[in-house]
Structure formats: C-alpha cells, structure tokens
Amino acid sequence: MRLSRYFLPILRETPKEAEIVSHRLMLRAGMMRQEAAGIYAFLPLGLRVLQKVCAIVREEQDRSGAIEMLMPTIQSADLWRESGRYDAYGKEMLRIKDRHEREMLYGPTNEEMITEIFRAYVRSYKDLPLNLYHIQWKFRDEVRPRFGLMRGREFLMKDAYSFDLDQDRARHAYNRMFIAYLRTFARMGLKAVPMVAETGPIGGNLSHEFIVLASTGESEVFCHKDYLDFEVPGENVDFEDVAGLRTLVDKWTSLYAATSEKHEAAAFAKLPADKQISARGIEVGHIFYFGTKYSEPMRAVVTGPDGTEHVIHMGSYGIGPSRLVAAIIEASHDDAGIVWPEAVAPFKVAILNLKQGDGATDAACEKLYAALQAKGADVLYHDLDERPGSKFATADLIGVPWQILVGPKGLAARQVEVKRRSDGSREMMAPDAALARLA
RNA sequence: CGGGGCAUAGCGCAGCCUGGUAGCGCAUCUGCUUUGGGAGCAGAGGGUCGCAGGUUCAAAUCCUGCUGCCCCGACCA
User: Fold this and answer.
1) At CA A244, angle to CA A240 and CA A249, rounded to 5?
2) Nucleotides on strand B with an atom closer than 7 A to protein CB?
3) Predicted-complex ipTM score
C-alpha cells in the first residue's frame, strides 16, 4: 500500500478524552474514531489489525473442531422469553421495537438463538458433538462505557456454543476450547492466564476467564507466577484425545489463579512469596460450561443410544477481538507508539523514502516496494513528501514491526537500513538482503 | 445510577469573571528554500462559539432548560 493512496489520519496531538494508552494510541494512529459513547468506527489501519486478530481466532477455532456460521445482530424478544432472560437481563440489553411494534433486541449474546437453531435440526446423539461459533457485533448498554475499545458498548465477539450428550462429553468440549484459547492468545503475542471466574448471568458452574496482565486492566487478579512460563500446546495437539486434553487442562489449572470475585486470600497466601502475583488484568476470553440451563427450558433434546430423550449439555465460549486489539496495545507499546507483534501487525514492513523526489531514492524504494509486494508481504510504502523525522515518527507510532529506511546516504554505499520496531535495532544491508530478510 | 467536569476551526487550547460582532499553536492550501528523528520564510482558506429559550441597543460572555462527551464511584460474560 502506498501511503499517498491510503487513508491514515494520524493525529499529532492526543485527543483529550483518551486516558489509557491503547485508546490514545488507537486514536493517534488513525485506527478508529468514536461515533458515540462506547461506539467506534474502525478506520482502515484498525480494521487490518482487527482482521488479523479474527483470522487467528478462526484458525484456532477451526483447528479445535468448531464450525463457523453467522447469526444476526437483531433478535426477537420472544426467544429470550423462552429462557427467562428477557426480564432477567436488565438495562444492559438494548431493546427496540420494529414498525409493527414487535419487541426486538440488539443481541448481547446468542445462547437462545443458537439453542433454537440446534433444536430445529438436531435429533440424534449421532450428530454430536457439535460446536458452532460466529464472529459478530454485540451490544451491551453499559452504564458507563470507558477506556475506548476496552469497555465499549458495541464490540466484536467470537462466541462458540458446544452441544453434547452428557456432562462428561461437555467437559471435553470445554477442554477443547480451553486449549484453543491458550493457543489463540499466545499466537497474538499475549500471555493469558486462565483464572477461576464467576459465571454471572450466563449461569453454570464451570468457568474460566483468560486474563492478560496489564496495569490498566479493569479487574484485580491473583495468580501463581509459574503460569507465565508454562508451555502453550503446539499446533499438533490432538483435540480428539480426551485424556490428553484433560492432562493439559489439569496442568493449566493446577496452580492458584483467580479473579477478585473468586479470590481466596488464605489459599493465595500459602504460595511462596516470590510466586505470588497480585496484579491487574484484562479479560480477553471467557469460557463456561452451563449444562442444561438453556436446553432444558427451550427443549433442546436428542435421542440417545438408549432410545430415550436426553437434554443437551451446553457450554459457551467468548473472545472479544475488538477488545483484544486494545489489549495487545496495552501489552506492547513504548513512548513512540504501538509495537505490534508480527502476527497481528497491520503491515509487516514499512518502506520510508527519506528523500522523496530524489531520482535514485525513489527508484530504489519503488523497486523494493514492488519486490516485497510480489512476494506477498504486507508492505506500506511511505511515499509522501515529508521530512525524514516525520516519517520516522509516523512509522514508530503505527508500530509496523520492520522499517526499511531508504535514503541517499545509504544508497551511496548501495545500502538501506533495516530497523526493527520492537527493540530499535538497526542494520545496514543491500536492498536484496533486506528483501530476502523480510519477504 | 450517585458525584465532579467539559463543550469556541480538523486536533490542542485562550477569550467568559468585568457583554461591543472571535484569537493562538499544530494541521490544511499556494509559492520558494529545505530533506537521516515531527523544517524555514511568505501568503491563504476554514468557526450558526453544542442546541433552544430569556435578559439587553448589543450575548461566546449573563440567566433558564436541554443534549452530547469525559473522569471518579457503583455496575460489568
């Protein structure tokens, strides 16, 4: 992408409403724009990151055996009356009426709808297990939205729903998501710790929140330090291996880790002092087993091998991609701007033309740009007529992992400079070497 | 939902107390110079001062109501 043809509205000054670093940097880097309290438009750069995050989420969901679909944002109130949640959910649910005065709502979650879909088609235990997910916009009318994307009202969410014949099998479905989540967050460069959590209005009795430690986190968390060094299961993990997954989950739940609501000070105090982590954290995922909470009232049943009806055991599993974008920034930035992990970076490499209009420099940049594109690299070519300093500042701000600095000084020695955003290290090399390194 | 604050050009702000027809920095546009860490000079454009009433010869400024947004708390899959 040529910057001259892109839409990247960088702000030099920080808008006053932005308090926390991710909010500030997302506005400054031209990633998003607030349209109302807790409601944001994603601008092109922000969308690129969001899509990278979603792609990783999809890959890991698919790998674990979940199947993607897409449910609507608007739901019927009647569906929610079946589960009893229409009255229970409270003002967080945005209720609306259509032109026929029918009561509708903008979905805050999809348990009812997925259960309705499931019961309409699935009749036999032979069609199980089943795990369906979608990535869709949700709306929760928070009393006080804040922290930009971190606590917005409208947000993108991946929610998966598992259906199994009984509790044991549902537990395996839970374990599959548990492992998939570990992998998902690790791929984004995050260390997420699964913590025992409240089940809240979703119901059920088995639940973990996946928490990224960050000083700006909204909740207080307590955990054993060793979690941060645990090895994340590789991509060859066998999701059909019931015992194997259970062993992995057992390991990842063997040490103390809890959010403040579930915190037990006495148990925590028993940890060696140097292993106690008391910190703030950002919830980036939440998984639940809730049994028959919805399948019972909504009559989602299948015929079992014994010929009788069995009420389905369910679980639901959420990840907030839009919140993840903010969480990644909270976890990875410096004074100059964002430092994207390569897996979610909007562009992998930026070419900075340090003397726009200089024939040799322009030619070298164009050649590099074309070559990188031909190799399929996500490359942003800063081809505006700006001073070098301004280009450095922009590139650092938007956090592209690699910068190629092309200027007359270097070219005189047939060299360009490759700068790595994460540690600021630089290296002079021939353009071909840069190409080989970064393509 | 309780408490506090803000609303003036794209962004950040001054002006308001003590009414007299709007200003600064950055950004934008034009020209010249400049080009390895947010350039310099010269010129230009851009604002129903959040909205609606009221007071007054006159309102960004004073009064009343409303709306939007932010912060602290409560709340929060």
Assistant:
1) 105
2) 1-2, 11-13, 25-27, 34-39, 68-77
3) 0.94
Distances from the Cα of A300 to the Cα of A72, A92, A120, A199, angstroms = 20, 27, 8, 21
Nearest nucleotide to the CA of A355, by C1', is B35
Burial letters A398-416, b for 16+ CB under 10 A, else e? bbbbbbbbbbeebbeeebb
Q: How far is the CA of A32 from the C1' of B65 (A)?
A: 34
Q: Residues A172-197: pLDDT tens digits?
A: 999 999 999 999 999 999 999 999 88
Distance A6 CA to B72 C1' (A): 40
| Spacing of A17 CA from B62 C1' in Å | 29
Claim: this prediction has a pTM higher than 0.90: yes
